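tool_call: predict_structure(chain=1)
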Amino acid sequence: MKRVLFLCTGNSCRSQMAEAIVNAQMGETLRAVSAGTKPAGYIHPKALEALAEIGIQHTGSSKRADEFQGADFDLVVTVCDSAAEECLVWLGKGEKVHHSFFDPAQTDYMEDFRRVRDEIAHELANMLAQV
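tool_result:
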């Protein structure tokens, strides 16, 4: 089974949604985890609500990127510009790619969480089809 790591700054929203979507929709071939460079220590409730609206019950936790240093991944995806800058060199195994998504926690509007959730699902389907 191939492994994917999603990195963000707070690991409370975008990377959590990416982890949950991959595990729910592609879990037979891919296993995803997520982490943050400065983890918030919680998952944003509206991110969980947005996932629940599409039938995904996510039970992850906010984790530090350091926990995965040296771990082998097939792909490491940074989902925000800050994490991409802070993780310029990924020391573990795995190809690194970057795709920045808007942070819906900046506005706290539910429609932004839904839009970002849908963008993540669409982009990941395209990106991970090649892993």
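agent: The longest helix spans residues 110-128. Proceeding to next step.
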